[in-house]
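Hi! If you just cloned this repository, the fastest way to understand the data is to look at a raw example. We've pasted two of them here, unedited. The first protein comes first, obviously.
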Amino acid sequence: MKPLESIFKIAEIVVKRKQGIITPGEQAILEDWLNESPEHRELFEQICDKVRVEKRMTDYSQMDWEKDYQQFIIKYKRKTVLHPYRRLLKYAAMFILPMAIAASFLFNHFTKEIPVIPPGISQATLILADGKTIELKQDSTYVINKSDGSILTNDNGLLSYNKTSDLTSTKKISYNQIFVPRNGEYRLTLEDGTRIWINSETNIQYPVSFNGGKRTVRLQGEAYFEVAHNPDKPFIVELDNAKIKVLGTSFNIKAYKEDLSLTTTLAEGKVSFSSKSGEENLVLNPGEQFELDKTSGEVTKRDVDVSIYTSWKEGRFAFRNLRVEDIFKTLSRWYDVEVVYETDAIKEKKFTGDLKRYDDFNKILEIMESSELIKFDIRDNKVIIK
């Protein structure tokens, strides 16, 4: 993957090389670029091919620059980052036609290489107590009436359980599950009014109604909870390695099975945290976070900026001095891509940033690549970081 700025810089250096005015520093940049891959050397040879260049120069002299630019932005939908290219097109015929030609060879090559990888969408699978599955979509609107007395409404990416008088009298507890796949998210409102934002690759099991002395759900993955206050019925989130107990509060839990730790971050209210062995029973206040090391069982309590850990439900990715490997665990779930690292050392590089969750993947990578700490190649749905 190549940001536009890099494409124009290489084009400028190649033209200077052809004109014999290249500086030693620019020559070094060119050599590094040529040594990156055989494809770069092939592109360089194309740019220096007199026959190819003369043909393209003839084509360019007949172009309607403004019309072609408008067609270009419609095709690639990249208005916010194409201002340098527009300036190039506008003045190319009069001032920098050789550079425009060189850039066109590079740009055509790299835009063909980059597939469009869209962000995730509202999608989930609802598994009812009888084993029946229902595919939930954001644009699907319907009401499901169940024999257990529950009424389920799906509308605009939100599944809601509406409380009825029949539910409170039902002795048998029926459990439903929602599974949100990679590249997905969903929202859920339980019958007591508790609201849950469910992140990618997450499963939640919950009763259709809370008939006992407590409200218990089970989570694997990541979700943000706004628990309806009820002092007579504590709300409990069971995890593989721990459980969270609350009365009424807002908090985020990240507990993916493959991660080496799980975290609970409190926005409002108060929660208690206990490990599976029951040896820990720590209280969390707003602005604090628990982290459980799954290997050692050690629990760490710290003060944090809560907005970083809840940004995903607000349509953002916020990172503060976070390892590349941890960043791409999150991004790969949302964009459903495979990530490959050229070396283990790359995993340890750290980034700070605030990105838009609904941007296409290429734009996210361009922003990170502009740091000049790492580079990306995209092949189908595989991202190679180097």
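Ok, and the second one:
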Amino acid sequence: MKKKIYLAAGCFWGAEHYLKQIEGITFTQVGFANGNTENPTYEQVYTDLTGYAEAVLVEYDSYIIPLRAIIRLYFKAIDPTSLNRQGADFGTRYRTGIYYADKSDLPIIQEVMALEAKKYNSPLQVEVAPLKNFYPADDYHQDYLDKNPTGYCHLPIELFAYAKNYKPISVKIRESLFANQDLGYRDFHSKLMPAIEKERIIGVRTPQLRKLAKEYAKDAEIDDFLSSLPHQYYDENNLHGFVIAEMKDYECSIAEIDRILPYIDNWATCDLIRPKSFNKDHSRLIKDIRRWMKSRNTYTIRFGIEMLMTHFLDDDFRPEYLEWVANITNDEYYVKMMVAWYFATALAKQYEVTLPIIEQKRLAPWTHNKTIQKAIESYRITNEQKEYLKGMKIRDCK
């Protein structure tokens, strides 16, 4: 996804040269941001009477590098506690600032700002504001250090090398996935999920995905990957789900699940997310399950039912939970399949309490029959029970 952000970091010659080195940044342009006049010239801005800051328009591909990573890298190129001064350059035109055109970027900017503020004893002097205006500087200033390699720059040359060698975690993960690609597995797996374009399936086997997820879950920049939604590849979504499963904090797990659920577009990704933290906090989990099951999103509902089936059909089971699922009215195939799976499992674990719902034919005919089919296939249902269930099938049901 192509996005834009406008960054003021002192003299825009060095700032642009630094930012353009970063993988995922696709275009840069120097200019003047958030001033009070129209079409200012460099000479006018230089007087500090126009209110403009020297800034860099940054266009980037959020599939490759998220905004939070760009803002973190931006902080490496500035002294954020210095007011109206960077290096030897001073004046309001050299102030530091982050100017956003998309208001949804503000929480991300604020999040990184708060983390950076903890590193300093003095308050940050970085201006954060919506973009009011931006005027490109003339050609002389564009790509200045490319055209003048020995020209003035307030940034150390080592910083340019750092930016050029920096690899966003999304890129590292994608490279790891393709390094573990199994084309035969991809072709086989794509047949199981015809709704997912084959080009979006890399073909990484589940054990390897789990292994990679455990490795990347420890990476300091993993949140950059988790926040880069939607992902481009099916395997990225699956690795994302396995990373969430590694989280030990309940609140963090819930926050990440709520973030990814709207982007899940297949049953396989939905069904593999099994957070370890859920095993320890059923009192809070049941409330979140109820919330998910009330959603209108197919895979959010499915996830809620699956978590109810996984965690609340044993010691913490209550008959009212059967009613929650029985009362779901949704014609989406993958919701109906999950309802059937739930009741088939409930018959295996809580047969006497669950049976009346089947006897009373409380479920939609297709779901009713699918429940019986899956129950009959279960080794946990006795032969006597299977014979009884067979007699309750609804005939002529499509």
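That's it. A detail worth noticing about the second one: The chain has a mean pLDDT of 94.
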